């Protein structure tokens, strides 16, 4: 055992925030605290948490998590839980590396041998052997728009199905309830894998109404950050697939707890992860250890990455093939810790020139602000 000596964070392209935690014996672990569009806020939270937990025994992950979460009085939320996630993932990586085992061995051992991966492209993903994709359901819509504005969603789904692939549709919180109800009903004959965030999670009564009126599975969770946030959705049976993000929701520790919590409600876990390699590797470690794992999202080739030049999912890895897709699956990493090796020199170099990433604004024809 050795105390935590330093916690560093690195903002890197395209929009990721990496965390390196080092103990007093010079051993280190890596995590990811990416919160898209809010890097500066998370960096500040990381600095604050560092003062709270520096010097604690790095091996005592649960004690560190509870200290960070409870000792500050105010708790939860996207920024704080993302900062805590980066530290938590790094602690698990460090501990498993010290024991020379993958993290999933410390979570109960491997349960699922392989991982089916989805992404947001079409033909290219089919050629990679992927079995399904996820895509945005619509462009931005008004509170009450023409029903004809929903036709393109049906057409896109039909095109993907014609390729022999399943598709999930992400409403992305862009639809308000009058439009979301119509689209859910119109999609039913086309059998999407699931619909995600049919309305924003701050409208749980609307989610419940849509869930009760459609046979399509309801998925949500990227904008929920703790087991306390998900309680009501489990209790009212309005969600079928939980999509908590390991880099937003308190890290490996909290994602594992939420998965266990969801199982007796017969709810599957499909972790949200359009992020970097550390977040994906952390997801895989949890996926392997839970019985209610459904499907894993990944960011390979996503436009956020390609817009940044040659930076994609493997860019900061010493072995860029470790997260490659083979016949529609990413296979379980076998190395210790997260199972990937970060090119620290590359991270430090790129971080010196990386500005905070900001999301694009979306506006309606009248200039009104629309959802991202």
TrEMBL record:
Instruction: Report the domain of life of the source organism.
Output: Eukaryota
Q: Does the keyword Lyase apply?
A: yes
Q: Which residues form the Mandelate racemase/muconate lactonizing enzyme C-terminal domain?
A: 117-217
What biological processes does GO assign it? amino acid catabolic process
Q: Which SUPFAM superfamilies does this one have?
A: Enolase C-terminal domain-like (SSF51604), Enolase N-terminal domain-like (SSF54826)
Entry-linked SMART domains: MR_MLE (SM00922)
Q: Which UniProt keywords apply?
A: Lyase
Cofactors required: Mg(2+)
Which is an annotated GO molecular function term of this record?
lyase activity
| Signal peptide feature range | none
Question: Which InterPro entries does the record cross-reference, listed alphabetically?
Answer: DgoD-like (IPR034593), Enolase-like_C_sf (IPR036849), Enolase-like_N (IPR029017), Enolase_C-like (IPR029065), Mandel_Rmase/mucon_lact_enz_CS (IPR018110), Mandelate_racemase_C (IPR013342), Mandelate_racemase_N_dom (IPR013341)
What the entry lists under PROSITE patterns is as follows: MR_MLE_1 (PS00908)
Q: What is this protein called?
A: Mandelate racemase/muconate lactonizing enzyme C-terminal domain-containing protein
Q: Which organism is it from?
A: Endocarpon pusillum (strain Z07020 / HMAS-L-300199)
């Amino acid at each position: 055992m050795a105390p935590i000596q330093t916690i560093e964070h690195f903002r890197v392209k395209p929009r990721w925030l990496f965390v390196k935690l080092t103990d007093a014996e010079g051993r280190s672990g890596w995590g990811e605290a990416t919160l898209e569009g809010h890097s500066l806020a998370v960096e500040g939270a990381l600095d604050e948490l560092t003062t709270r937990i520096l010097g604690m025994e790095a091996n005592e992950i649960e004690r560190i998590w509870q200290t960070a979460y409870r000792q500050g009085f105010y708790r939860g939320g996207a920024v704080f839980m993302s900062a805590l996630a980066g530290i938590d993932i790094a602690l698990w990586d460090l501990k498993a590396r010290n024991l020379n085992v993958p993290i999933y061995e410390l979570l109960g051992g491997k349960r699922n041998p392989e991982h089916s991966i989805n992404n947001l492209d079409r033909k290219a993903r089919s050629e990679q052997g992927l079995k399904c994709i996820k895509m945005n359901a619509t462009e931005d819509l008004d509170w009450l728009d023409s029903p004809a504005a929903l036709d393109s969603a049906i057409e896109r789904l039909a095109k993907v199905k014609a390729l022999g692939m399943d598709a999930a549709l992400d409403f992305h919180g862009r639809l308000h309830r009058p439009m979301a109800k119509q689209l859910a009903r119109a999609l039913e004959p086309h059998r999407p894998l699931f619909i995600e965030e049919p309305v924003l999670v701050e409208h749980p009564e609307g989610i419940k109404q849509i869930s009760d009126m459609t046979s399509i599975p309801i998925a949500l969770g990227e904008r929920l950050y703790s087991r306390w946030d998900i309680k009501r959705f489990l209790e009212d049976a309005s969600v079928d697939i939980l999509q908590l993000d390991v880099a937003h929701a308190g890290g490996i520790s909290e994602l594992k707890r939420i998965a266990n919590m969801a199982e007796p409600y017969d709810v599957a876990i499909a972790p949200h992860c359009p992020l970097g390699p550390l977040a994906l590797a952390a997801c895989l470690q949890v996926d392997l250890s839970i019985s209610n794992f459904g499907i894993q999202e990944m960011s390979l080739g996503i436009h956020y990455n390609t817009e940044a030049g040659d930076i994609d999912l493997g860019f900061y890895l010493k072995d860029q093939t470790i997260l490659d897709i083979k016949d529609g699956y990413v296979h379980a990493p076998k190395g210790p810790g997260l199972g990937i090796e970060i090119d620290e020199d590359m991270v430090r170099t790129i971080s010196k020139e990386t500005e905070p990433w900001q999301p694009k604004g979306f506006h309606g024809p009248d200039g009104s602000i629309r959802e991202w």
